Amino acid sequence: MNGAESLVHTLLDAGVDTCFANPGTSEMHFVSALDRIPGMRCVLGLFEGVVTGAADGYYRIADRPAATLLHLGPGLANGLANLHNARKARSGIVNVVGEHATNHLALDAPLTSDIEGLARPMSHWVRTVRDANSIAQDGREAVAQAAGRPGQIATLALPADMAWSSVSGTPGQLGAIHEPAPAATEQAAVISAAQALRNSGDTTLLLLGGRAVRARATEWAGRISAATGCSVMSEFYAERIERGAGRVPIPRLPYAVQPAVDALSRFDHIVLVGAVEPVAFFGYPDKPGRLARPGTTFTTLSTHAQDPAEALQMLCEELGALRLQPQRCPMVVPTAAHEEGPLTPASIGALLATLIPENAIVVDEAISTGRAFDQTTRDAAPHDWLTNMGGSIGFGLPVAVGAAIAAPDRRVIALEGDGSAMYTLQSLWTMARESLNVTVVVFANGNYQILKGEYAQVGAGTPGRRASDMLSIDRPALNWTELAAGHGVPACRVSTLGQFADAMRRAQAAEGPSLIELLL
């Protein structure tokens, strides 16, 4: 057995059975091992940002890590933006990065680089294999790190000679590595939160983040609100919100500074459940960085290492609210009016609420068009909503790939701005090759519309010709039906609500991927 085979066996034994890959010369023995050893699903991405983003999406739905296979330092570097997003989303990923043969490194060949130095800012754990006989141990530790609570990014550099060298023995059959048990909820935190809620429930906010926005946790949060009159919100960005009809409505904190400040201004006390003190996404002239009003008191009920549902249940019990029924979202009733009128973000969101199928996964990178979708889609059929935790655009299409691989029986809907989609356009090819049930909706406004708003927010004045050219993508215009077709994905272009509704119904009735270009 060689080192590459040892690593594949180790990954499979530890419970990693999916590898998103973009390999090169240094990884060929690992590719050969993947080819000959049964059990690993290998998914090719035509750009490393697709590979790392797909691993993020996979973890968010599967709650267990996938592997990536990347080519040397430059390949890793191409994937760093979506590793940044995955790190912020607390997604567990095992990166296997090929390295030159150890005796070749001193020659400083063109692709030689500091892989550990590149990996470290976006990884929690980094190691280079130094001995072929340690590959199994290194690989198992990488999986253990990735499967931690919260999930972590583990990067293992595998020199080519370590991959092709013979190893002694066989990988230990130690069984799958599962997420460890969460840390215990502290009773003192429960008592402190309960005291704040009893004293001033109407001016106290439960701010949820991480796994606290899954249905098991929001049920308890809804009961607490019913008992105390407190408000419940989530952080604006959340890796996976379980929402929709029959579930407890959890509005998201607004993105823009002033609306967020206004939303938080009436709270004396904020209880953090898998969340952190809310801050502005950017620094602006004459605007606060901290969004809560000065003097607000914070209590941390649960961290990301703990179980937020357990913490909220304990708080519910402390408040005597276990038997109360929370408010729930009603089911939206489709009407002809949903398919009539002008195309606006509000009308598109209201229509989407009638079109999201039960148990769907919605990946939201709609940026400016989708900013209000949180409110307008809240009463859709029960579904999961995934957002960009790290803010680096180009996350949506790859995450949709990973989510669809993790849940092949569920429909995935990717809501995409046209500018954002161009960053990882190659995802469409992977969707076609893997026959993934992904419906991509591209909101085509021909602009980096979000940047036009930010230009004004930072007080940069009125954009002139050169600035305007850097904020628009309309010369030449992108043709998404042709771009999709070139990647093997059926596509259509629509310009009215009625056309959009018809296209969505056709897409969701068909197997495999499709793309709808919505002209704005």
Question: What does this entry look like structurally?
Answer:
The chain has 520 residues and is α/β, with parallel strands linked by helices. It has 3 domains: 3-164, Rossmann fold, CATH 3.40.50.970; 187-318, 3-Layer(aba) Sandwich (Rossmann fold), CATH 3.40.50; 336-519, Thiamin diphosphate (ThDP)-binding fold, Pyr/PP domains (Rossmann fold, 3-Layer(aba) Sandwich). The protein is built from 21 helices and 17 strands. A 7-stranded mixed β-sheet has the order 9-13-12-14-15-17-16, sandwiched between helices. The chain has a 6-stranded parallel β-sheet with strand order 2-1-3-4-6-5, with helices on both faces. It has a 4-stranded parallel β-sheet with strand order 8-7-10-11. Strand 7, helix 10 and strand 8 form a beta-alpha-beta unit. Helix 1 packs across helix 2 (28-36) and helix 13 runs parallel beside helix 21. The longest helix is centred in the N-terminal third of the chain and has 15 residues, at 48-62. It is globular and about 65 Å long. The mean pLDDT is 95.
What characteristics describe this protein?
520 residues; Rossmann fold; 7-stranded mixed sheet; 37% helix; TPP_enzyme_TPP-bd; THDP-binding; TPP_enz
Describe the structure in brief.
This protein has helices at 3-14, 28-36, 48-62, 72-78, 80-88, 115-119, 135-146, 160-164, 187-200, 215-228, 257-264, 308-318, 345-355, 373-376, 396-406, 418-421, 427-433, 449-457, 465-470, 480-486, 497-509; strands at 18-22, 41-44, 66-70, 93-99, 125-128, 153-159, 204-208, 231-234, 241-243, 269-273, 297-302, 360-365, 383-387, 412-417, 438-444, 491-494, 514-519. It is an alpha/beta fold and 520 residues long. Belongs to the TPP enzyme family.
